[in-house]
Amino acid sequence: MPEPYDDGAIAGTGAGGAMDLATSEATTLEQQPSAASGGRAPGGPLGTGPSEKPRSLWSDAWRDLRRNPVFIISGLVILFLVVISLWPSLIADGNPLQCDLAKAQEGSQPGHPFGYNGQGCDVYTRTVYGARTSVTVGVCTTVGVALFGSFVGGLAGFFGGGWDALLSRVTDIFFGIPVVLGGLVFLSVVTSATVWPVIGFMILLGWPQIARIARGSVITAKQNDYVQAARALGASNSRMLLRHIAPNAVAPVIVVATIALGTYIALEATLSYLGVGLKPPTVSWGIDISAASQYIRNAPHMLLWPAGALAITVLAFIMLGDAVRDALDPKLR
Amino acid sequence: MLLEVRDLHVEFKTRDGVAKAVNGVNYSVDAGETLAVLGESGSGKSVTAQAVMGILDMPPGRIAGGEILFQGKDLLGLKEDERRKIRGSEMAMIFQDALSSLNPVLSVGDQLSEMFTVHRGMSRKDGKAKAVELMDRVRIPAAKERVGQYPHQFSGGMRQRIMIAMAMALEPSLIIADEPTTALDVTVQAQVMDLLAELQRELNMGLILITHDLGVVADVADKIAVMYAGRIVEQAPVHEIYKKPAHPYTKGLLESIPRLDQKGQELYAIKGLPPNLMHIPPGCAFNPRCPMAQDVCRTDVPPLFDVAARRQSACFFWKETLDG
Amino acid sequence: MGRYVIRRLLQMIPVFFGATLLIFLMVNVMGDPIAGLCGDKACDPATAAQLKKEFGLDKPVWQQYLTYMGNVFTGDFGTAFNGQKVTELMSAAFPVTIRLTIVAILFEIVIGISLGVVTGLRRGRPVDTVVLMLTLIVIAIPVFVTGLLLQLLLGVEWGVIRPTVSPEAPFNELLIPGLVLASVSLAYVTRLTRTSIAENSRADYVRTAVAKGLPRRRVITKHLLRNSLIPVVTFIGTDVGALMGGAIVTERIFNIHGVGYQLYQGILRQSTQTVVGFVTVLVLVFLVANLIVDLLYAVLDPRIRYA
């Protein structure tokens, strides 16, 4: 399929803290069952050769992604993060909770390349172990949000009518609460030192974003001619939803969820910085940055290492999602 | 001659290679004359027109060779600003889908009067008066009241009339109409086509009518150019081509029109698909689909043979086609 | 148009009550609403019971909520921990946060839209790639890190700005905090504008405008921008509410005594009335901003206005 050559620069918008944006943009990424013929050639279609095989949305996207350096780099970074969160001792043999106050705020030295923090803990070890917390929070929140959001949004979109009106209003209510504010109010009363309250809270306020996407793409998929045809042939509701609609509605959800994963990690750090997120002894970049911010004048290294790790992690997920979106969105080719 | 296109070549750079959209097109239009350019999508008919207008997306498009002579000047040698001044005032274009081709957030009055304020330096008030005048001229009822409305508030036929009014605004000497009636209901098609033909006669304009609809062509065109894979395969005065096509492709097109007197018979269809423009078959591009193809068709590119006066065919076997 | 406005207003009502009820429940059921009233010590049981009665806390939660909302609609937001009226705290805090938000919005409009237009028109060129990378980096670095770094560099190391903002918070001291607050949204506005310009520049009506022989400048300003900016304007509108709610982090870094500061104090001292009051107003701001955006949308896009 000849299409106008468009360079591979990252098109489209990323998403993150301001969840609206990811939502509003991903709605442009609706279903294109004939994605392979999606692009508009200048001055009308140029014709398809009989020799070309039709390509599916996913295989076409995969072909694009394999050649996209942004995808490869962010994918490798994420792979690395996952490995060290599973086995942090692979690259850090210290104990993140073993600290020596006598060494507090000391800078880089042999064996301790990132120096020590305010409590005299090894910054390198804590930065490595912090990955586990961030990845756990990010992945668990995303899975929860994606499952619950798709469920609610899918129901609203599929059944429409009264269900849709009701579920959409409920979605709006949760959307109406500013996330950081809600976090302060909700988490300030929680005393547990585990990651679960934070994850639970982020799912509570995060699912409407996915629900809106899922609703939109289910509605679009439902209107596709072949789905109408299946309905006319008497396919049951569950069969329609599972066989015809879900496979086509899932792409936008995956893209937004990937990008959102990065923003959940950033949100956890922000809440921890405000003192309502994770609590010691949990090792978290947010806690470490918060603690280091008081010594920023004397010992900036304590802040820069966890902050850098945090930024790279968030960036990797956002870029991965961005690359996948570009690959799946034929309009931007 | 008003417009002469000589040996025009246009290419598009795509992700998978270079697509040759136009490969040596020659055609010409005189004042008051209508040339119909016929072909399937991808035959290069729209791309040629866009190259003439100077509105090709470049890149990815590229004019790889040829000349476009308009009133004796080669347009390809002009600076962009000189070409811009010709667009709209000397030559204008009517697009297929008026709904998407009109700006959704500007009133039709604004879009019409813009022609006068930009090209003629008129005041906004005068431009608005001209807009109403134009809408009257293309017979839009209650023009004065509707001049402030937006494109989506008009019916499809009315929108296409507005497109026509916009093209006629500065009384250009050449109009290119790219499938002007394809998006319309059949009943409205005839009205719009009649309006276009009428205005053309009044203003003695040259008209290039791009279409894939043979029915539209017969009534209004003076001559026809049939395009296939970026080349003109047959060129002839309109009535001769209907009587006796001199190219197997034209013949196939004509035979695939449903006709009342052949009721009950199976409808003819040209077998196969148009070629991929990145891998145009060697020899005659039509040979894989041609019922008359011989060995020579697979190796040599047929030149345009003179069949009769003002009549050409790019087929080695034009004689046989004419007789068959 | 009139019906559209009314429908939107009606839709707002359940959302407002739902969201405030949610916050109310979080604070009153999960927290201890009287904990902050006895100073730093825990209340003794007798005082606690008396206080509960005084504040109507012995009644069912839904009654408490209705009473509270009734008071709110008569302008009574209750008292904060030190006996000050919550409305007094608000009248001191909101002007500061509103100033901060204005600065942030101006940054979004001026820098965000300009960068978006420039990159959208030059897709694939080096300037586009560089700006896109920068926006991703800005999005990826959490606001509190950006804020701390700018405070360290500009305020402490180079002494260009005051590291913390004075209590009066005049506009000139809010420039850098405003930029920090705007940073992530700024990056979004850039990318959204770019995408929108890029999509619209391929639209048929732009081709028509070119075919009409309009100068490039006019094609861009009159035809392309007008259409492309519709989603951007609506994003910025929705962002007003989000910025005011998100100002809490920026205000903490630069010690700005705005809404976020008061909320933070309210939470630290467990002052239920302060927290619920401020959040209620913020939810209202958020909803009104959304409503205005919807109306703005209708003004900008005649297809909605006359639908």
Overall pLDDT score of chain A: 73
Question: How far is the N terminus from the C terminus of chain B?
Answer: 35 Å
The portion of residues forming beta strands of chain A comes to under 5%
Helix proportion range of chain A: 55-70%
Question: Count the strands of chain A?
Answer: 0
The averaged pLDDT of chain B comes out at 87
Summarize the biggest pleated sheet of chain A.
none
Subcellular location (chain C): Cell membrane
InterPro entries (chain C): BPD_transp_1_N, MetI-like, MetI-like_sf
Keywords (chain C): Cell membrane, Membrane, Transmembrane, Transmembrane helix, Transport
Domain ABC transmembrane type-1 (chain C): 94-297
Identify the notable features of this structure and list them briefly.
heterotrimer, B: 324 residues, alpha/beta, eight-stranded mixed sheet, four-stranded antiparallel sheet, 13 helices, C: 307 residues, mainly alpha, MetI-like fold, 12 helices, flat, transport (chain C), transmembrane helix (chain C), ABC transporter permease (chain C)
Please give a structural write-up.
The complex is a heterotrimer of chains A (333), B (324) and C (307). With 333 residues, chain A is mainly α. Chain A has helices spanning 19-26, 57-66, 69-86, 123-159, 161-175, 179-187, 196-223, 225-232, 237-273, 285-292, 301-328. Chain A has one domain: Orthogonal Bundle (MetI-like fold), CATH 1.10.3720.10. In chain A, α1 runs antiparallel to α9, α7 (196-223) runs antiparallel to α9 and α9 (237-273) packs antiparallel against α11 (301-328). Chain A is elongated. Mean pLDDT of chain A is 73; it is low at 1-54. With 324 residues, chain B is α/β, with parallel strands linked by helices. In chain B, β11 and β12 form a beta hairpin. The longest helix of chain B is centred in the middle third of the chain and has 18 residues, at 186-203. In chain B, 48% of the residues are buried. Chains in contact: A-B, A-C, B-C. The interface between A and C is large, with 60 and 66 residues.
